[in-house]
Amino acid sequence: MNDCDIPIIRPILLTTHKYRHEKNGLLPPFRSKVRAAYPGVDSRDPIEGDRINFAYDKYKFLGAQTEAAIIK
Questions:
Q1: What whole-number distance in Å separates Cα of residue 50 and Cα of residue 72?
Q2: How far apart are CA 54 and CA 52, in angstroms?
Q3: Are 23 and 30 contacting, i.e. CB atoms less than 8 angstroms apart?
Q4: Which of 20, 35, 40, 41 has the highest local Cβ count within 10 Å?
């Protein structure tokens, strides 16, 4: 059975992001977490679903050059 096969159940997604190091004026995420909960299945509390953790450690910053021009 799929998570959303029952029409009355709509998952609640919660995302959390942590930021640690600034580089070139940017603050990329260091860690992210995604949690899913399913209300309506149990009469007491939402049922916990998947938990996914991401760790970012190998960033590559690419430079791009552009030219400004006025087009009439």
A1: 54
A2: 7
A3: no
A4: 35
Integer Cα distance of 23 and 31 in angstroms: 16
Strands (E), the chain: 12-19, 29-38, 47-55
Summarize pLDDT for 50-72 with one digit per residue, the tens: 899 999 888 777 777 778 788 87
Over residues 37-47, the pLDDT tens digits come to: 887 766 677 77
pLDDT number for residue 2: 59
- Helix, strand and coil in the chain, % to nearest 5: 0, 40, 60
